[in-house]
Amino acid sequence: MRICVFCSSSPDTPEKYLQAARDLAKAIVEGGHTCINGGAEHGCMGALNAECVRLGGKVIGVIHESWVVEGAAFSGIELRLATGSTLHQRKQILFEQSDCFIALPGGFGTWDELFEILSERQLGIRNNPVCVLNIDGFYDGVIEQFEKGVSEKLLKHHFSKLVFVTQNAQEAVDHLAVALKNPVILEAPFVRPKTTAMLRRDYLPSISILLLGFAIGYTFQKKYSFSPNFPVFNLFKK
Fold first, then answer.
1. How do residues 18-42 score in pLDDT, each as one tens digit?
2. Separation CA 210–CA 230 (nearest Å)
3. CA–CA separation, 199 vs 179, rounded Å?
4. Which residues, at least 6 apart from 103, have a Cβ–Cβ distance to it below 8 Å?
5. Distance separating alpha carbons of residues 91 and 85, to the nearest angstrom
């Protein structure tokens, strides 16, 4: 599997989260999977990359070219550079290169990536499985907000259908492997099956134009004895 990991790149990341990143690296490498992330040198990302490299795993870092110039990229891994004035292209490369996703603790960048993937899963744009590693209750507030969205009927699907939450790295990787083999296809929200009335509305303009064409053809045929060389107009001669 190509597992994309969203996580912190801050040098001030607490040790408990760095250790969680190392544990995840171990589970990824021992499973023979490829780790894809933002390619940074510090934070959970740096710990993840360092441990993957130490264990002999394959790592792909997708990083904006400006951060390479600033020396923020992790050395010793395969780097793929994103360009542009925003992070949009970088996210697209991360998403397109990956089979599944895991979120470790992180900041706005991590949350942005996680929520975009969840939005696309809910809309049926992507069907890639997603896990959240809720280390030391870091995502408890987010999970509570998910529950609020469900209870207020702002989310069509219960969040558990969109994302698997655990505190264990190996459990997260194992879940992704099973989910990829047995994908759950979710119905896109707010899409109603077409009723007979809706079908009539959709096809009425085409039917009206067709009938108008027949009427014009019939009028020309009767008034001017004109019959275009189309078999359908031969019907008017009978």
1. 999 999 999 999 999 999 999 989 9
2. 15
3. 36
4. 5, 6, 7, 110, 113, 114, 130, 131, 132, 133, 139
5. 13
